[in-house]
Amino acid sequence: MSLMQRKELEGVLLVDKPSDHTSHDVVARLRRKLNMKRIGHAGTLDPMATGLMILLIGKATRISQYLVSLDKEYEGTIELGKVTDSQDAQGEVMETRPVPPLTEDEVKKAFAGFLGDQYQLPPMYSAIKIDGVPLYKQARKGVEVEREPRFIRVMSFDLTRFALPHLDFRLRCTKGTYVRTIAHDLGQRIGCGAHLSALRRTATDKFNISQALTLDAIEALPIPEIEKRLIPVIDAAPSVAL
Length: 242
What we know:
By secondary structure, the chain is an alpha+beta fold. It contains nine helices and 14 strands. The longest helix is centred in the N-terminal third of the chain and has 12 residues, at 23-34.
């Protein structure tokens, strides 16, 4: 085997995740394309969500913890009046209520109530493990498990389009924040219920969706071209010594 064939790719690849893909699906497709097993990611996205995923190729998997801890930015849509069991559009509608004649200012005030430091109760439909079992597996059985609230911070939560029963938003928050739980809780505070109907991660700290390639685009590229797209570890995480 030649030196070139033995050389393993290393670096950070920014991917625009398609809808209806799990984060594991994204990693699996890249493993097939690059013929590599050592590929990870720095932060999951729900299957419904699209947008920025940071893929760690080769030895870059070592900086996972650093990149996972970075702040995130999202754009999305909340639909008022319908509560789902998963808190997003992929769940079953559990309750439907009339949407009150809200004004744009009233919605903005409700959004402002989510700003700052707070504790958030993770949803049952999540990958968090309790006693080694992911919560979503218990949720599918109809079992409600006691779970610890998590500390989060919401730095900004802006209304970008007011079109009842739909509210478009832009949100910046710390790692571990469940945006669909914010949507659900907003509906509870307003009194009509709500769920997250669309979500797109647009940034993770300095990494922006404009820098990312779709999976289809990556799969169409020859390996040397993909290698050119890799961000060196020293640039992705300059403060982390490998």
